[in-house]
Amino acid sequence: QVQLVESGGGLVQPGGSLRLSCAASGFTFSTYVMSWYRQAPGKERELVARIGTTGSISNYVDSVKGRFTIFRDNAKNTVYLQMNSLKPEDTAVYSCYANSYYTGYQYWGQGTQVTVSS
Question: Which one of 13, 79, 90, 111 has the minimum C-beta count within 10 Å?
């Protein structure tokens, strides 16, 4: 059974930090590209960050560059999103996404709420 379980969301003040985790099971994690998406109320879902299978390649949406870092631990089947210097506009539900270019399989987590507010 495939599972992607996010954790680490919550309420934080502007300028604060959070680290999101996404624990994977039920598939060969190390062969999947992992991504974090977010969706704010009334807005479309957007890709925040993506990381390749080995962790050596990553990319980010412009609005989070220099503030967010995506990294993965293939031994723990977990991908992380370190979020620093958070802004109110970062408020959204953050979800992790796994996809395999070889098989075409893709999976979504259930999401975790991040709220940036004073």
Answer: 13
Report helix, strand or coil for 109: coil
The per-residue pLDDT for range 5-39, each reduced to its tens digit, is: 999 999 999 999 999 999 999 999 999 999 999 99
- The sign of the CA dihedral 13, 10, 61, 45 is negative
The parts of the chain modelled with pLDDT lower than 70 are none
CA distance 99 to 107: 7
Residue 101's beta-bridge partner residues?
Answer: none
> 75: which 2 tokens?
């031994």
Cα 27-74-15 angle, rounded to 5 deg: 110
Strand order in the sheet with 68-73: 3-7, 18-25, 78-83, 68-73
Residue 91 to residue 39: CA distance in whole angstroms: 8
Give the three-class secondary structure for 19: strand
